[in-house]
């Protein structure tokens, strides 16, 4: 369920005695621009490289020497160095760009590499649609509500069904995201809701039974 609508940047801290300050936590939608900064004494005057490391893979160079890219790296990645700050810009960031990004440099006095990492991950709120039971089904003394959840990332959500605000679990099939009951159960309540929680945020869709009689 990778999709497009939050990127978060979280600091992994500095590495080695030459202190590099990583970007503070931030969030944005995939498709927008992510900027990761790397600060340190006179960083802008050093040879700065940015490396991408995806889970389970080796680090890959994405920019070097200010704004140069190795063959095969798309131009959505660009680097800039100035003063005490180096910046990696990821234009149109998507789920495929989820990775740890490391600033690496060689200070001219010791020629030793120093690096720190910033994790980049997209966050997309789910799209939730609640479908009420069709009138033909109600006429047959059956009622099926379907809660369609799509376009979310990372890939897990918690779903709760509620009737008149109270949580219900009977006749719920969470793998299919539907709520089944007979029409008497349906008519005995004023409303049904599908409550979807993703990454700490909740989206609720409600249908009133009076609108479907």
TrEMBL record:
It is found in: Cell membrane; Secreted. Residues 18-33 have a biased composition (Polar residues). Gene3D superfamilies: Immunoglobulins. It comes from the Eukaryota. One of its GO terms (cellular component) is extracellular region. Its main location: membrane. One of its GO terms (biological process) is immune system process. Keywords: Cell membrane, Disulfide bond, Immunity, Immunoglobulin domain, Membrane, Secreted, Signal. This is Ig-like domain-containing protein.
């Amino acid at each position: 369920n990778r999709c497009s609508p939050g990127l978060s940047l979280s600091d992994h801290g500095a590495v080695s005695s030459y202190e590099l300050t990583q970007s503070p936590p931030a969030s944005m939608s995939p498709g927008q621009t992510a900027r990761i900064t790397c600060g340190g004494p006179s960083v802008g005057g050093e040879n700065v490289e940015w490396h991408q490391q995806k889970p389970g893979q080796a680090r890959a160079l994405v920019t070097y020497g200010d704004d140069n890219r190795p063959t095969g790296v798309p131009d959505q990645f660009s680097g800039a160095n100035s003063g005490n700050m180096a910046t990696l810009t990821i234009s149109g960031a998507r789920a495929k760009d989820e990775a740890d990004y490391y600033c690496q440099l060689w200070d001219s006095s010791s020629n030793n590499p120093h690096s720190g990492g910033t994790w980049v991950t997209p966050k997309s709120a789910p799209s939730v649609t609640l479908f009420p039971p069709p009138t033909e089904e109600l006429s047959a003394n059956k009622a099926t509500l379907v809660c369609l959840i799509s376009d979310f990332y990372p890939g897990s959500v918690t779903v709760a069904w509620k009737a008149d605000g109270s949580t219900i679990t009977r006749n719920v099939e969470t793998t299919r995201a539907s709520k089944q009951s007979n029409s008497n159960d349906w008519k005995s309540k004023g409303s049904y809701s599908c409550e979807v929680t993703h990454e700490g945020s909740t989206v609720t869709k409600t249908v009133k039974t009076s609108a479907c009689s």
